Amino acid sequence: MIRVTHRISIDESELEESFVRASGPGGQHVNKTESAVQLRFNVAASPNIPPEVKHRLMRLAGSRLTQDGVLVLVADKHRSQMRNRVDAQERLIDLIRDAAAPPPPPRRPTKPTKGSQQRRLDGKSIRSTVKKMRGRGSDE
């Protein structure tokens, strides 16, 4: 069991890992080994995730989510397969934690106070008089 939050845990049997060849630096080593990890997690069918978290997770996943509700994460940052596996699992856990946090309440707009409105208008009139004084003098 992978502990995500105090309420949510994921069974390791729900994760499906496949290994592919990674691109990038590494020379001949990268051409021979399958060090990149493709982690698949079926969000839609997971019994361990509450429905509201599932909904937010599917929204957060974006293009990483297939039409069947499977989340696909590809980790090929490191040259080691083991480090890529850990990286993919950590990214999945972070994504689920982000989805588990409830969204903040919507912002309620407030009105400016009378004093702040008056200060703003006073500043504008002062600035206006300064600019009027810059004009050319009369030819008298």
TrEMBL record:
UniProt biased composition (Basic residues): 129-140
EC number: 3.1.1.29
Chain intervals for the UniProt region annotation (Disordered): 96-140
First-tier enzyme category under EC: hydrolase
Keyword vocabulary terms for this entry: Hydrolase
Any one GO molecular-function label of the UniProt entry: translation release factor activity
InterPro entries per UniProt: Pep_chain_release_fac_I
Record domain Prokaryotic-type class I peptide chain release factors: where: 21-37
UniProt xrefs under Pfam families: RF-1
Gene Ontology annotations of biological process type: rescue of stalled ribosome
NCBIfam families named among the record's database cross-references: PRK09256.1
Protein name: Aminoacyl-tRNA hydrolase
